[in-house]
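PROTOCOL LOG
Step 1. Enter all chains and additional molecules of the complex.
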Amino acid sequence: MNLLRKKKILLGITGGIAAYKTPLLVRTLIKSGAEVQVIMTPSATDFVSPLTLSVLSKREVYSTFTSPAKDHDTWNDHVALGGWADLFLVAPATANTIADFVHAKSNSLVTATYLSCTCPVLLAPAMDLDMYAHTATQQNLKKLAANGVEVLPVGDGALASGLSGKGRMLEPDTLVSHIEAHFAKNAPLGGKKVLITAGPTYEPIDPVRFIGNFSSGKMGLALAEAAHQTGAEVLLVIGPNSLPLQEVPFEVIPVVTANEMHQSVIHHYSDVDIAIAAAAVADFSPQQKALQKIKKSNGLTAIPVAPTPDILAAMGELKQSHQFLVGFALESEHGVQNAKKKLKAKNLDAIVLNSLEDAGAGFGTETNKITYIRAEKEISYELKSKNAVAHDIFSAILQDLDQ
Ligand code: C5P
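Step 2. Run joint prediction.
Step 3. Record the structure below.
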């Protein structure tokens, strides 16, 4: 569900009081779906227990080059540890370890792993304010940054010495945000903004009734998640739904009517790089919403309606050269032909066709079967989960953006 899923994070803990926060950091990373391998300097074990970190990370924790075993000691291979990791985070990084890194020392498992690892290194310094401000430390940090280490800032506030100032290790949540930002920056859609419309719209008839449709919003949510996992900043504009959106790691704008969705989309559209209209927008809206519930006894023979704004067509008209616009087409016959007409009429870059003729495709289902269509090409996919379909769509878009 997020950028840290299945990421292999090697956490190097060095001997500073901020080490007491690392169990929370490990727990947060594990909860985010990352795999965490902890290594420590011997002095770090004075501040936080390897047992605690081992329980939370569900792995053995190493603080020495060898571990005692029954017959003979086993080697804690720092080369393999460095090779395993997608990212090496050193937190807290003490002034001493920072100096060791600068001087290529391999006097502990952490420093040896720093020298041998080939993955990106993130460093979260933590020390007293004068140590941090010292020219020697600042020069060391500059040298590490020049060598490609991503040196994180420090927090400002109460320090273990009783003094107050710059030198605190960043809080675990902030560290996790930095790690996410690191993976986002290096992901295929890193730095791109993606807008997705999803779900149905409800067009009120009176305070309790509406014109709507059976769209669940699941395809749109799957697209938003795939975009986020690929590193994009995501904005999901979604109509009424019962999806679990409380803790999603991107911005969600809930709307009810086609007009509200239109306003929200137009407000944000100029900022985005990719927009995908997956919403099943109601095509008609009652001309007037009755202020009171319409009584059955009064009888009702017709509801005068007016067309809703075509949001996708509006995006097509406003489209700038750097923007990539994708629509959906749910067709019951002559699918490709009709989808291609829409592609042109709405000035789209691509259109995703799902056919009502295909079992398991369309509204409410967990699966979908699509054809990705551009003016000059069509790619048809098998029936898949909506999550897998969303990833297929972004792979196709990324390929098109590359050309
Ligand atoms: O023309 P049609 O409604 O079949 O086009 C479907 C596509 O247009 C979908 O991408 C849908 O999200 C979008 N759409 C829209 N606003 C409307 C109607 C459809 O954005 N009022």
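Step 4. Note key features.
The pocket of cytidine-5'-monophosphate is lined by residues 197, 258, 277-279, 281, 308-312, 327-329, 342 (CB under 6 Å).
The longest helix spans residues 386-402.
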